[in-house]
Structure formats: structure tokens, C-alpha cells
Amino acid sequence: MSRLVVGPFNRVEGDLEVQLDVEDGHVRSARVNATMYRGFEQILLQHAPLDALTYAPRICGICSVSQSIAAARALAGLAGVQPPDNGLLAINLMAATENLADHLSHFYLFFMPDFVRPVYAERPWYPDAVARFTPLQGSQQRLAISARKRWLDLIGTLGGKWPHTGSIQPGGSTRAIDAAERLRLLTRVREFRQFLESELFAAPLERINGLSSESELWAWHAEALGQGDFRQFLQIALDTGLEHLGPGPGLYLSYGAYPRADGSMVFPRGLWNGVTQCAQALDLDDIREDSAHAWLDDAGGPRHPADGQTQPLMEKTDAYTWNKAPRLAGAVLETGAIARQLIAGQALLRDAVARCSATVYTRLLARLLELAQVVPLMESWLIALRPGEPYYRAAALPDKGRAVGLTEAARGALGHWLEVEHGKIARYQIIAPTTWNFSPRDAQGQPGALEQALQGAPVLPGEKSPVAVQHIVRSFDPCMVCTVH
Amino acid sequence: MNTPFRVLWLQSGGCGGCNMSLLCADTQDFSAMWRSAGIELLWHPSLSLESGDQVLDILEDCLQGRTRLDALCIEGSLLRGPHGTGRFHMLAGTDAPMIDWVRKLAAVAEYTLGIGTCAAYGGITAAGSNPTDACGLQFDGEHRGGLLGADYRSLRGLPVINVAGCPTHPGWVTDTLMALAAGLFAEADLDIIGRPRFYADQLVHQGCTRNEFYEYKASAEKPSDLGCMMENLGCKGTQAHGDCNTRLWNGEGSCTRGGFACINCTAPGFEEPGHAFQRTPKLAGIPIGLPIDMPKAWFVALSALSKSATPKRVKQNATSDHPLIAPSVRTPRR
A-B interface: how many C-beta pairs under 8 angstroms? Predict the structure, then answer.
């Protein structure tokens, strides 16, 4: 058996190291190390509660709006306020803009470039992949960066700037969109739709959204081989066995995305059980964070985040990461677009996951399908805005109380647990999507989702940073700065 | 321009937002923008193919002089803790603290840039109890020193160039790198805390769309109000250095245009203003932070006068999220 230490990873957000024990050309076990600690849960203490709206987005420069929303919802819970309809729509629009920008960046900037590595030089699709996806040279990557820039201009109008907008407040949005601005935003969304329909899907979004099974997907794929980057991905996935690479734990978590005024959500909250293929209710009380293998004080054992603590402690023999291990009733969960779409009942994705579970292929498929689904939703939300009516509702914060703020970042379930005493933040605990996905072992020795997904991954002779490992790691679209915060 | 100007971009104790912001640079073709300026991204965390051992080879080539490192761009604070060990950020795959890598690379860099307020002065990561002992490359808050020390100079003789902002503006980064690559940047182009003067010699107030409200001290009272945010909502645009309201962000944005206060994010210490961010601290009803270069007595006198002269339109619109009264139409007399 030999050991490989792989890092620094790039084309993930933040710094990441993976330790692999390799035997007979396969990963036997993996340990995931989030190598950086900044201490936001300590920094936030003793500040005015609304100051969380300045600090929390700065946990992460790629999930910034999501962090703002989680903080704003925790504060809204404390104040007992809900944004007016326009405010809800404006915040959903910003959340969707960020999430889709992240999906786009993930596909074109982070994930696909690995297929231009020389290890694939003999594959039939290789010259085409090089032409499309080579960093800073590939035709499609260059178009995608340009489309992404234009796309994020939506938040320039809706929220002043991205990342680190301050417009998202417990009572709604500080930026009322007028009738002319609404039309400009619609034009910008349609421009992005045009990019997706001509470059990514080579098909109308409605056609993609109408595919309800894998057989329909592959039939559609065969209609126009090589047309569009999605078809190219499918070709590569089939050829390289991504369908079976990097299986996850089989239990999926989503806090639900895009709330409506009546309290329901466009993509509902819950769990998806990959064995029974059924949705289950989520009980937040079942969450515990286990710091047995983190360089953090774990006195008292696993804690619910409402009762959580974060105190660095380097002198621990079993620790190998700064990340805690969140568990739900002891179980390891996977979160992300795949969880959102399984729980929401996306037919094609449910079909694909029933066949091959959560793998590199289905994680990618889930994001791309979400791109196709959410753009038309955004068009409808813009139409639903009522210029002239309020975007913000004022509310006073109590001096004391507890609340939780939940949202879905691009990468999955994000929660902020807040406690206020004497008008100051007395406790602030954050569980980010990659905290779940890249968690270390817990006190029972149970590996986290990525650690499980890496077991069995092939390692080719002479590889120091195995390409299969890179595919699996990036298939989660990890955000390491959120993970530890 | 035969040899490219090589840029190495590394991240430490920050959020990655300055890098994400950079990708929003206002250009049709991001890679052509660099290439046409003679700039090569030697390694970049979001873009480069190289990962793992390949990255370490690139760093080693710089350290051994096999690759000339023209610009070392560091994003994020430098984490000195715990107890000076730097172990709050070990560069993955190396078993060495990131602060050691930064010290070594800064010694071989032609120019060293602090990208964002974290790398410049410590920034958000240094807020609160500063649990990681975070600092900037050459500043620890407002004090010279930081990781590299007050006397540090890169090979070209410049101190660290602080492209401060939280996040920094993509144009601030591209303009600085392009000026450096073209040999058009000298020490005189930095202000006294190391920021490029092309953006730091301007105030956020300049070009603010709320200036009519400011003139009459017609103030916003709650978030989303259209009025000036200086009196009540913590806005520091009249004191903050940056061309945010003339250069604009993400198309047509800026903090004040987004309806929230400027928090002076290009300045050292912005992360701990000593008051709640969204509330203006006052003494006897007068904001403590007055517009830069403005004597207090004049501010008080002018405020009183302008408040009493405020047109009804401006006064009413100031506390609404959309204009209630349009400017009256005056037809030219013949």
C-alpha cells in the first residue's frame, strides 16, 4: 500500500488536500483536509446582530449571496418578519443568479478542463475537448467567461455589486427595481438563455426540461451528435465511465430553494433516500456536528448547531482537518443540485440516479438540468415584480432570542444558527454545503461523503494527482472557504 | 513584448471573492485581454489546468529562478496564528504554512500585490478577536509591518501594491497589472497606504446618485429609502476612497446604488468601525464621521441651512423606495 498526498487543488474554491491510501491501483481509503481556518464563528461574537449582514457574505466570495440570505433569514426569524412579495422575488432572483453563475463556472472553468489532460489524448473526443475546454484558450470556455460576466451584471442592478452585496436584509431588499429596470433585467436573462440554447444545450431550454427519462436523454443526444457542450459532456461521460465513478452515501439533503409568499418553495425541503427512492421529511433537531477528527475542541461530544461551539485545538492526535463532521441522526448526507432536484422530483434525474446513484455523471447532470429549469423561472419572477410596491418591510430585532436561517447555495444546504443575548451575537454557527460533503470521519469512524466517494477510485501507474480523484473531487463543486469558515 | 509579464495568483486567509470579482472584468474575451497586454497568468486558482504536484513545480521554478515571477498577487489575509506558527493555513500538499510560501515568493517577485483589503491590511479576517492573528502583506491594520515588514521592497524597488477593496474591483486589478506590465507604474502612483492612486484618489461620494439628497441633507431613515444614507444608515461614501460611483460595479451597480451604505472597505480597519455597520454614530445629533476635508463648523452650518431649504420633492422622495414626486417640468420661455 502506498500513500499519496494530493494538493493544492485548484478549480475548487479555496485550499484542499486529499490523502489517499492506494492499493492495487485503487484508492483504498481517503482523508479530506480543509487546510485553512479563519474563525468566522468567533469573529461574529459580540457584534450587533445586523453586522452579520456585513460579515457573513464575506465568508465566501463565490456563495456570497447565499451566505447573505442565510444570515438575513436567521435575523428575520429573530425579528418575526417576512419580506414583502417584491422583496422575496428580488432575493430569489439574486440567489438564482449566483447559483446559475456557479453552475456555469463549475462546468466550463472547474470541471471540463480536466478532459484536456494528456492522459486522454487517445480518446476520439479529445481534439474536440481541447478546442472547447482548454483553460483560457478553448472556444467555449472563453464564451462562458464572457456570458458569466454579463450574467452577474444582473446583481449589479438588483443588489449593487457581486460578490458581497449589502442589499439583502431581513425585511427584503434595499433596492427597489422600477419598470424600466425590470425590462433591462429581462433582456439580460434572455441574453443568457440565448447562450445556453446556442452553446451549452444546442436546444431550447423547454426541450431539455421536457426530457423525462434517460432513454429520452440519449435519444436526444443521438439526434445531433457533437452539437453543443452538453452533448459533448454526455459523450465523454459515457466513454470514461463517469456514470459509475465516485458514488456518494445515497442519502440526500436539501433545505429547499426559492420560497414563495405562502411559505412553500419552488424546490422543496427534505431528504431523498436513494435505497427506497422516496422523499422523507427533514427534522433539523437530528443534526449534530462532530469534531472528533477536527483541530477543534470537541468536549461534550457532538453538538446540535444551536448549541454548537468552535474553539481551535491543535493538540489532538486523531485530527486531520479544520472541518467538523455534520451528521443527521448519525447518517452521512450528500447535498447539492442533485439533492435539490431529486427531492423536487426532476424526472430525468430521478431516472438516472435510480440507475447509477450519485456519481460524477449524475452530479453534473443535475447542475446542467437546473440551469435549464431556473432561467425560465427567473423570467417569470421578473414579470411578477410589481414596481411601485414595497421591496422592504421594517422590523425591530429583539435583544434576545434564537433563530435559524436556511437556504440553498449552488452547492447545497446552507444553515446559520444564531443566538442573541443583550442585543449582541452570543452564538453563531454555520454549516455550509461542503461542510457536509467534505466532512471528515466522525467519532464512529464513519467517513464523510467525499471520503466514501473516493474509495475504489482508479489510480494509474505513476500518477501523483490521479485524474479520477480530480474528477470526483470537482464533481461536488466544493467550496472550501465556506466549509470551515 | 517578447517575454510575457508573468502573474502568479495565490490565495490565503480570505473568501476568494477578489478572484471571483476579477472574472467579472469588463471585457468580451478575458484571456485575449491578458494576452494582448503581454500578460501571462502563470497560475491562477480558478483557471489553470495545473493542480497538485504540477502547481508545486511552478512555485519551485519561481523560487529557483527558472521562471521570472513578474507579479506575485496574494489574495486573503496572512494567518500568523496559532502562536506565530502559521498553521491556520498550511498550503495543501506541502506541510508548510502559507505564510512561509508567501515570504519566500515575495523575495523573488519583481512586484508584489496585495489583492483586496485582507491581503493589504488584514481585512475582515482580522475582525473581532482576530482569532487567526491575521494581517496584511505589509500592513497590520493601519500600522506598517504586516507579514513582510515595513521595509520590504520587491525586486523592482516598490513596496507592496495594495489593491484594496472588499472585494476589490476587477478594473482596479486589471488596470494595475496592465500599467505594471507596460512599465507605466511608479512609486508615486501609490497613496500613503500603498493603494494605486488612479482609484484611491477619488471618493465614493463622487458620482453618487444620491447627491441631490446629500445636498439638502434629505436623509434615508430605513433601508430601501432613496435618501442620503450618511446621516442615519452608516454611509461613509464622503470619506471613503474609491471610484465606485464613476467606474461602477457589475454593469450599473455600486453599494450606494444598491441601496446600502458604503462601509469604506478600501481602508485599513474598516472591518471594525467601532459601531454597528448600518447605523451612523452621532454626537449631539451630528455624525461623528464628517465628509473628508470638511471643517465641522461649516458642515453644521451648511446642514442647517440646506435642511431648511429642502424642496418638498426631495424631502418626500428621501424616505420612499421609489420617487413619489417627479421633478416639475419647466418649458423654456420664448
Answer: 274
| A430-456 confidence digits (pLDDT tens) | 999 999 999 999 999 999 999 999 999
Domains in chain B, CATH or no CATH each: 5-200 (3.40.50.700), 202-321 (4.10.480.10)
User: What is the spatial distance between Cα A362 and Cα A472, in angstroms, rounded to a whole number?
Assistant: 11
Comparing C-alpha atoms, which of B165, B192, B163 is closest to residue B180? B163
Contacts of A48 in chain B (CB under 8 A): 276-277, 279
| Four-CA torsion B311, B315, B316, B317, nearest 10 degrees | 100
Alpha carbon distances (Å) from B197 to B151, B163, B177: 21, 10, 14
| The amino acid at B245 | N
Specify the CATH class of A2-484 in words: mainly alpha
Instruction: Give the CA-trace dihedral at B161, B163, B164, B167, to 10 degrees.
Output: -150
Q: Are strands B161-163 and B109-115 parallel, antiparallel or unpaired?
A: parallel
Query: Is the CB of A45 less than 8 angstroms away from the CB of B128?
Result: yes
Domain ranges of chain A: 2-484
pLDDT in tens, B174-190: 999 999 999 999 999 99
Nearest chain A Cα to B221, which residue?
A394
Closest CA–CA distance from residue A162 to any residue of chain B (Å): 7
Asked if the bond preceding A8 is cis, omega within 30° of 0, the reply is: yes
- Which of the residues B95, B248, B250, B272 would you substitute to probe the A interface, choosing the one with the greatest number of A C-beta atoms within 10 Å? B250
Question: What is the value of ipTM here, to two decimals?
Answer: 0.98
